[in-house]
Amino acid sequence: MLRKTGIGIAVVLGLVVTISVVTATSNAHFVGTPQLTISGNTVTATGKVAGLGQVNEIFVTVSGEAECINPGRKKPQAANKESFSAGGNFPVQNGKALFSVTLTAAFQPDCTPPMSVQWSNVVITVTAVPDDGTFLQFP
Fold first, then answer.
1. Could you tell me the domains of the chain?
2. pTM of structure
């Protein structure tokens, strides 16, 4: 009878620990608004994430669509529209992490002046490493 009680207590403690871990990571949020800086064919996303609990690091992905447009603002042909993404791991200290990821559009053929790159649908995605269910997206 004592063994069954001991196993029951271990199962209950295991559930409490699991619930605590899930709760600790469910508070993840951006501190302020992440910034997107566009310069030519690059987009740099910077920001801060807090409420990460016991997470060791985060993985941040930036994805978007780039179009090479002409001076008359004409939309490109299919060959000059592409989706791009970049990402990286960032350490968490005291439940917080800073990130900066640069995404670069590389067209073939190149998008050279007088053509210019126009970005759209740029999204920042944050997950925890190892994956604990943390998932943030901006916008």
1. 2-138 (2.60.40)
2. 0.75
